[in-house]
């Protein structure tokens, strides 16, 4: 058991990100003082969404300039905090240099933040935003899992710097977090492993990969039908609750799959098409060999297609329900509201 004092400030890394935005909203609504660690506190275009929340909610926000790749740059932000939420990590699929653009910020960033925690006596709890991709590399891997289902017991063993580098960045960062946590006994690590995050964020112009998929549906990239890519989905607002509970429950421990639904590209496309029929989204499915042929022109490797398209995707979210008290909103609500929020903001052309 570990009591967390909600009158103490908490630090959030990557505070201007998509996932962090809704987490900070939740923290502010609980009256908490948020130490928002951001790369550029002067970038009002990014911080204005957080400022607007702080104006109307009981908590307050203070910005700190921090970078994953600058050693010690989170120390000032975490001083006096009992809880640290480490969400910052690049989530981009198309990168020029995977080592520089994904792996270094994920791994060195985790080391940097957690070494800061080791130096900061006030910190009792660290919540790391990992991913389901720390649990599996390609959907094909899950065929070997018990019940062909992901649980908190499995690890991604197939991603590398060349194959699924984002997934690789997440699994090595999470492993490093456990290694650093297990070498001490003052603070406790709790990990949240989300599936693909959807739902309206506080900033409709965020750069997370989650937004690109909605834009691709809107543009007609799947007008022939969506590929048979199965995936899990979690609403960004539900994920905020999962983080909050992981940070505050006395008995929270270990990893937690945060995934509301075992779903697919096709199901997301169908939900959008039913609600917004004017967008060019095919209801059928493109055969795997077509996707395999076209993959390189879409920036996807054929190995990724071969090992993911057509395979089931099943994650067990029982621990999040039992230990964090999670309930997950319906998938159509998340998809419709996400797409709608992007239309309202002019990010997606209204049709
Ligand atoms: P965003 O791109 O919106 O957020 C990523 C954040 O990381 C941004 O705030 C970004 O800062 C920050 N960041 C990137 N590089 C650095 C750096 N060098 N120094 C400091 N900050 C940096 O993505 P998401 O909100 O989607 O992702 C948040 C977390 O959730 C990540 O750990 C991601 O892996 C994880 N996740 C996301 C999923 C999803 O579907 N979206 C699924 C599973 C896990 P800046 O605003 O300055 O660019």
Please describe what this structure looks like.
The chain is α/β, with parallel strands linked by helices. It has one domain (10-344): NAD(P)-binding Rossmann-like Domain (Rossmann fold, 3-Layer(aba) Sandwich). It is built from twelve helices and ten strands. The chain has helices at 18-29, 44-56, 75-78, 98-119, 165-182, 209-219, 236-248, 265-275, 288-294, 302-308, 318-324, 331-344, and strands at 10-13, 33-38, 60-65, 83-86, 125-129, 188-194, 196-198, 230-235, 254-258, 261-264. The strands form two sheets. It has a seven-stranded parallel beta sheet with strand order 3-2-1-4-5-6-9, sandwiched between helices. A three-stranded mixed beta sheet has the order 7-8-10. Strand 5, helix 5 (165-182) and strand 6 (188-194) form a beta-alpha-beta unit. The longest helix has 22 residues, at 98-119. The protein is globular, with a radius of gyration of 20 Å. The termini are far apart. The model has no long low-confidence stretch (mean pLDDT 95). NADPH dihydro-nicotinamide-adenine-dinucleotide phosphate (NDP) binds at residues 14, 16-19, 38-39, 46, 67-69, 87-91, 105, 129, 131, 170, 194, 196-197, 206-208, 210. NADPH dihydro-nicotinamide-adenine-dinucleotide phosphate binds at residues 14, 16-19, 38-39, 46, 67-69, 87-91, 105, 129, 131, 170, 194, 196-197, 206-208, 210.
């Amino acid at each position: 058991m570990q009591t967390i004092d909600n009158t103490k400030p908490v630090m959030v890394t990557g505070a201007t990100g998509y996932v962090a935005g809704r987490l900070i909203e939740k923290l502010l609504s609980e009256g908490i003082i948020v130490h928002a660690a951001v790369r550029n506190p002067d970038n009002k275009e990014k911080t204005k969404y957080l400022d607007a929340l702080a104006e109307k909610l009981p908590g307050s926000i203070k910005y700190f300039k921090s970078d994953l790749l600058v050693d010690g740059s989170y120390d000032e932000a975490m001083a006096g905090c009992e809880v640290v939420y480490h969400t910052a990590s690049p989530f981009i699929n198309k990168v020029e240099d995977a080592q520089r653009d994904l792996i270094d910020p994920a791994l060195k960033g985790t080391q940097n933040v957690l070494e800061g925690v080791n130096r900061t006596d006030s910190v009792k709890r660290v919540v790391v935003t990992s991913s389901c991709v720390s649990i599996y590399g390609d959907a094909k891997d899950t065929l070997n899992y018990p019940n062909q289902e992901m649980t908190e017991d499995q690890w991604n063993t197939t991603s590398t710097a060349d194959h699924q580098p984002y997934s690789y960045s997440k699994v090595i960062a999470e492993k490093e977090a456990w290694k650093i946590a297990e070498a001490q006994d003052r603070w406790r690590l709790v990990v949240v492993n989300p599936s693909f995050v959807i739902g309206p964020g506080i900033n409709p112009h965020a750069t997370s990969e989650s937004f690109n998929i909605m834009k691709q549906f809107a543009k007609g990239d799947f007008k022939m039908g969506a590929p048979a890519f199965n995936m899990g989905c979690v609403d960004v607002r539900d994920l905020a609750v999962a983080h909050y509970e992981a940070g505050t429950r006395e008995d929270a421990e270990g990893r937690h799959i945060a995934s509301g639904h075992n779903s697919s590209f096709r199901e997301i496309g169908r939900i959008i098409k039913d609600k917004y029929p004017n967008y060019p989204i095919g209801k059928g499915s493109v055969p795997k060999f077509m996707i395999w042929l076209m993959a390189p022109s879409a920036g996807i490797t054929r190995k990724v297609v071969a090992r993911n398209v057509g395979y089931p995707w099943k994650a067990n979210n029982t621990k999040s329900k039992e230990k964090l008290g999670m309930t997950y909103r319906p998938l159509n609500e998340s998809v419709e509201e996400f797409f709608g929020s992007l239309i309202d903001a002019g990010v997606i052309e209204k049709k």
